[in-house]
């Protein structure tokens, strides 16, 4: 614990050194700060380009809508504020000591797209003028207009349409970013980490689009302030409630409904937002189908946020999320009967206080809580070959509690530097449990063994965004992370570096390097993030995962609102964790031998990504293409030989278009194509017939006699068929006073492509002669998503 607390001292010392070493420069610089808000609601707007026309300098507002600008000398300057969906505003200011300018932006009507971006000269509003690379953002308005499965607007499914991001299976929300697994994505909701991000076995994410203000994805070039995962950072900011008046928004779809309420508590100073969503397929179908009490499921989620502007220098927010899934099923067969139920969910909360010590120095202190739980109980009754009745039991349970304290500081010492530093300390409590057994009828199910794995994780960082010339930008930083298991400490330095050089003609060359460490692991058999998967922390025997990634790219701004990027990357991952051959779950005890069921390996991912994106105008959307390879190697899997990762896919294409015909009519379409994923399927089978040699099996004879066994080749050596589908959508809007309603009709998989969801073997009679039977095993494909039309209704006032 003392060594972890040393990180706090280290960060404070580093920050104080920077402060004292650049005092002279800070005194000569003039700093302008402020906040940008929506003129109607008073809600802060993140990602606004704040530009200085005279110097071509600029910045973007952060997730709280705050910004800082630095000037080398006094005088009068023109400052412009622009953001997608808002009218650009330009003002004249004469910065001085302690100057603060707060701007309110008016929304831009859909048919006045030309007011967006015009006159914009801010460096940070163009991809060619930012040091960050491998970053993606999708305006929330575009996400709401993209066609989707059954009309459910989903942030994570929208991210799957971007290059470098792959899905686990069609229709699911699992993200595989540049060869990493679903556990290697740092998903932050208002800065709070979330472990499991899906509803309904991955078909929908837990993020209600009505409650989300912005979403950003980083695939590489990670700044030092982010850590704890290997492959990506997904930042989602919840909306704040309206500071001026009461508003209501909702929608009714085929499988779920949603409702959001927002209202000022004290007008202009505090607000409250509440959003809820629930599926009702279990309630709607039950009266029409018999046996639904044995086979149904549902999910719900709740979002809430309180925001307080305590004064010109202080802001306090309290945000939270709570959601749960429940599913049960029962099957009846000739020789078997199976029952099961699953329960899983998340609960998170965060208290954040932002304080401006002076215009150039800002601090944010956060207290965060994360809770994840999942439980799966399966029971199968089988009549064996000798007519004995046998019960098979499976119980999986995983519970996580995280308590985090963190502090972040931002400081502008001059016109060329923007320093950030901070530290955090997290207490982890993992309670994984897994039991499998076989009992004859009449015996009690096995007791539920579990292990409580407590640990501490800490980190300190410092980074500087430095602009030595008008063309060159550098982000350099160091993150120092630490982890304490039961008896062992892990200390890992994580250097980060990003460079961007801008050439004439609005194009730039960018490069980055990032070293990452991950102290938690997901043990999975499905590969798609089911609630039967188990989370475990690093232990005395299980080291943290590590990765190193380099990227090189080109960025070009073709014209305002249109940009193209091309990037190549190489990533190496080490100490990845998986089950050994033959192990499908863990059995816990006090001896620690459960770790004998694990194996450790490494992975490589490399490729190229192309993105052409248009964010403004009547026609918006993007074209993305990914070419990539992902391989893994474990000493105790596949006989130690390298194999393709399950989510390895050579080519991935996505085309998205949204056209605003009029302010009342919007058309949208998406088309995606992906080449084969890798699976492990048997290449042959054999069975043991009755023979005198079976007497050598003793009590196991009854199990082996007549049993069919599969023979497998190399791991993931089977490739699925390519998948592709076209989705169409149309939205009709009508506004009358403050009330606005929207009808949406969409069609998923318009030309009814039979895309594979999974495969299985079935025994079929292939004989063409009457009375003659010739049974053969045939590989069959299951398609879950044929053509799916949907209709939904939304309203707001």
What does this structure look like?
The protein is globular, with a radius of gyration of 28 Å. It has a 22-stranded antiparallel β-barrel. It has a 5-stranded mixed sheet with strand order 8-15-16-11-12, with no helix packed on it. The chain has a 4-stranded antiparallel sheet with strand order 3-2-5-6, with no helix packed on it. The protein has a domain of 125 residues: Sandwich (Immunoglobulin-like), CATH 2.60.40.1120. Helices cover 6% and strands 56% of the residues. By secondary structure, the protein is mainly beta. The longest helix has 20 residues. Strand 35 and strand 36 form a beta hairpin. It has 6 helices and 47 strands. The two termini are 52 Å apart. It is found in: Cell outer membrane. Belongs to the TonB-dependent receptor family. It comes from Siphonobacter aquaeclarae. This is Outer membrane receptor proteins, mostly Fe transport. Keywords: Cell outer membrane, Membrane, Receptor, Signal, TonB box, Transmembrane, Transmembrane beta strand, Transport.
Helix amount: under 10%
Q: Mind telling me the CATH class of one domain?
A: Mainly Beta
Number of DSSP E strands: 47
CATH superfamily of one domain: Carboxypeptidase-like, regulatory domain
Percentage of β-strand residues: over 45%
Low-confidence stretches: 4-27, 110-124, 441-449
Alpha-carbon distance between the two ends = 52 Å
Pfam family, one: Plug
Subcellular location: Cell outer membrane
InterPro entries: Beta-barrel_TonB, Beta-barrel_TonB_sf, CarboxyPept-like_regulatory, Plug_dom, Plug_dom_sf, TonB-dep_rcpt-like
Membrane topology: Multi-pass membrane protein
């Amino acid at each position: 614990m003392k060594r972890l607390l040393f990180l706090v001292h280290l960060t404070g010392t580093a920050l104080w050194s920077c402060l004292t070493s650049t005092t002279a420069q800070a005194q000569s610089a003039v700093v302008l700060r402020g906040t940008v808000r929506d003129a109607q609601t008073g809600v802060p707007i993140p990602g606004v380009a704040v530009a200085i026309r005279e110097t071509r300098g600029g910045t973007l507002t952060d997730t709280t809508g705050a910004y800082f600008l630095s000037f080398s000398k006094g005088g009068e300057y023109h400052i412009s504020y622009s953001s997608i969906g808002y009218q650009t505003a330009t003002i004249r200011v004469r910065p001085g000591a302690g100057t603060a300018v707060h701007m309110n932006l008016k929304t831009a009507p859909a048919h006045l797209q030309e007011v967006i971006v015009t006159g914009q000269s801010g460096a940070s509003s163009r991809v060619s003028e930012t040091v960050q690379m491998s970053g993606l953002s999708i305006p929330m308005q575009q996400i709401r207009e993209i066609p989707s499965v059954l009309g459910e607007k989903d942030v994570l499914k929208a991210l799957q349409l971007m290059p470098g991001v792959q899905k686990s299976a069609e229709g699911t929300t699992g993200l595989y970013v540049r060869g990493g697994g679903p556990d290697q994505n740092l998903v932050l909701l208002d800065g709070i980490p979330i472990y499991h991000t899906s509803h309904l076995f991955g078909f929908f994410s837990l993020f209600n689009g009505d409650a989300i203000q912005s979403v950003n994805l980083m695939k590489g070039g990670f700044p030092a302030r982010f850590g704890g995962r290997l492959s990506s950072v997904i930042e989602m900011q919840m909306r704040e409630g309206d500071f001026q008046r009461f508003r209501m928004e909702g929608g009714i779809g085929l499988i779920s409904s949603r409702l959001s309420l927002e209202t000022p508590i004290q007008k202009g100073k505090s607000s409250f937002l509440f959003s809820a969503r629930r599926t009702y397929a279990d309630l709607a179908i039950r009266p029409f189908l018999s046996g639904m009490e044995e086979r149904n499921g549902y999910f719900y989620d709740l979002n809430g946020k309180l925001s307080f502007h305590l004064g010109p220098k202080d802001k306090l927010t309290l945000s939270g999320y709570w959601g749960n899934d429940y599913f049960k099923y029962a099957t009846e067969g000739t020789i078997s009967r199976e029952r099961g139920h699953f329960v899983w969910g998340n609960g998170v909360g965060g208290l954040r206080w932002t304080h401006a010590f002076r215009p150039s120095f800002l601090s944010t202190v956060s207290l965060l809580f994360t809770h994840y739980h999942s439980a799966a109980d399966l029971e199968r009754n089988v009549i064996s070959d000798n007519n004995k009745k046998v019960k098979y039991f499976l119980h999986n349970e995983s519970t996580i509690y995280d308590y985090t304290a963190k502090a972040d500081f931002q400081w502008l010492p001059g016109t060329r530097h923007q320093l950030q530093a901070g530290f955090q300390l997290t207490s982890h409590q993992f309670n994984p449990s897994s039991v499998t057994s076989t009992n004859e009828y009449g015996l009690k199910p096995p007791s539920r063994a579990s292990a409580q794995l407590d640990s501490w994780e800490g980190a300190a960082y410092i980074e500087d965004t430095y602009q030595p010339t008008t063309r060159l930008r550098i982000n350099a930083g160091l993150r120092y992370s630490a982890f304490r298991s039961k008896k062992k400490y892990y200390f890992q330095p994580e250097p980060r570096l990003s460079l961007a050089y801008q050439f004439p003609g609005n194009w730039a060359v960018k490069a980055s390097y990032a070293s990452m460490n991950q102290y938690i692991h997901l043990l999975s058999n499905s590969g798609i993030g089911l609630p039967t998967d188990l989370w475990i922390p690093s232990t005395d025997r299980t080291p943290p995962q590590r990765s190193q990634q380099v990227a090189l790219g080109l960025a070009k701004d073709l014209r305002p609102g249109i940009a193209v990027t091309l990037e190549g990357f190489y990533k190496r991952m080490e100490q990845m964790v998986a089950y050994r051959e033959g192990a499908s779950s863990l059995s816990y005890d006090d001896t620690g031998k459960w770790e004998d069921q694990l194996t450790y390996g490494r992975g490589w991912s490399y490729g190229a990504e192309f993105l052409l994106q248009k964010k403004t105008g009547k026609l918006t959307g993007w074209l993305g293409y990914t070419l990539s390879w992902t391989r893994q190697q474990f000493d105790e899997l596949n006989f130690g030989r390298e194999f393709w990762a399950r989510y390895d896919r050579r080519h991935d294409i996505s085309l998205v278009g949204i056209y605003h015909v009029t302010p009342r009519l919007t058309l949208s379409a998406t088309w995606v194509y992906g080449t084969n994923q890798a699976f492990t399927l048997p290449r042959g089978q054999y069975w043991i017939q009755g023979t005198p040699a079976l007497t050598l099996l003793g009590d196991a004879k009854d199990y082996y006699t007549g049993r069919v066994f599969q023979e497998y080749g190399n791991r993931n050596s089977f490739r699925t068929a390519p998948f592709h589908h076209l989705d169409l959508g149309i939205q009709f809007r009508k506004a009358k006073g403050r009330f606005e309603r929207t009808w949406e009709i969409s069609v998923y998989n318009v030309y009814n492509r039979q895309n594979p969801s999974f495969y299985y073997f079935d025994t079929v009679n292939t004989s063409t002669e009457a009375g003659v039977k010739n049974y053969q095993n045939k590989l069959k494909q299951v398609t879950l998503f044929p053509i799916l039309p949907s209709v939904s209704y939304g309203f707001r006032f």
